[in-house]
């Protein structure tokens, strides 16, 4: 595999398409419109993922290439990318990124103390992070042309499902992440137990007026998500799942249930996730 040592957040359209085309040529026979390519930080497709990140973050928060280089530079060598490819058009549709570590050295853990007033060591102690493998879920990005309807459902679900599949393979124990208001709402709709980092509340962060730092236990994620879907469909009693109860009369109930099924079980998605050898 060809690798690249240059970190780029500003590939032009032609170069993005060239790299996607090269990846598809190396992985022929795809039967789905969308696939997820899991690639290391030095893979040529990683800079496609970075460019998608920058496009989304600049649109939403004004974070340009210079900001992205400054914010993510210390974490590039521990990053893993999930690049969602539209096989029909030969272009990226979205991207996800994780940063791997055990505690201090994860971007969320490094950045949170200045905003929540709790030292990093106390954050780790609060959530029982005592050296086991942890992932910082730093990016979930869907390009504008894939937002809304079936495309957004498939692209976002594929990012989240890839996170679960790759994380299980890597034996991840802990998850931390920074979530803006929309991302927090979307994660909560999946039935994920989002624990405020060290009991913290919302704060402003990198252009987001309402950001939350949260912790999740990785081994519980897939089961919790699948169970939320079953409750929304009436297959399982609502019980004390207040989030599911609130969604029962919501117009988004069925699409939320479908997202939970896709992400929680991988049915119809797992065969379209390409993990590194």
Automatic annotation (TrEMBL):
Cross-referenced Gene3D superfamilies: 3.40.630.30
Domain of life: Bacteria
InterPro entries given in the database record: Acyl_CoA_acyltransferase
Name the record gives this protein: Uncharacterized protein
Organism the protein comes from: Krasilnikovia cinnamomea
């Amino acid at each position: 595999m060809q690798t690249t040592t240059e970190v780029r957040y500003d590939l032009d359209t032609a170069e993005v398409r060239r790299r996607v085309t090269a990846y598809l040529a190396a992985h022929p026979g795809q039967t789905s419109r969308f696939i997820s390519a899991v690639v290391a930080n030095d893979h040529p497709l990683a800079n496609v993922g970075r460019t998608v990140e920058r496009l989304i973050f600049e649109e939403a928060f004004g974070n340009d290439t210079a900001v992205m280089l400054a914010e993510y530079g210390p974490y590039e060598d521990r990053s893993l990318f999930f690049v969602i490819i539209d096989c029909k058009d030969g272009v990226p549709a979205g991207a996800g990124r994780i940063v791997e570590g055990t505690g201090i050295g994860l971007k969320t853990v490094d950045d949170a103390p200045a905003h929540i007033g709790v030292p990093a060591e106390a954050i780790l102690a609060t959530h029982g992070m005592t050296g086991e493998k942890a992932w910082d879920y730093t990016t979930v990005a869907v390009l504008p042309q894939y937002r809304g309807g079936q495309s957004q459902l498939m692209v976002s679900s594929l990012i989240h499902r890839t996170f679960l599949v790759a994380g299980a393979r890597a034996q991840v124990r802990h998850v931390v992440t920074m979530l803006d208001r929309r991302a927090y709402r979307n994660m909560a709709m999946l039935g994920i137990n989002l624990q405020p980092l060290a009991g913290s509340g919302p704060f402003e962060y990198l252009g987001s007026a309402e950001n939350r730092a949260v912790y999740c236990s990785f081994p519980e994620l897939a089961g919790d998500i699948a169970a939320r879907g079953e409750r929304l469909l009436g297959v399982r009693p609502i019980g004390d799942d207040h989030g599911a109860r609130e969604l029962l009369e919501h117009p988004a109930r069925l699409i939320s249930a479908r997202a939970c099924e896709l992400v929680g079980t991988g049915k119809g998605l797992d065969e379209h996730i390409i993990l590194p050898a």
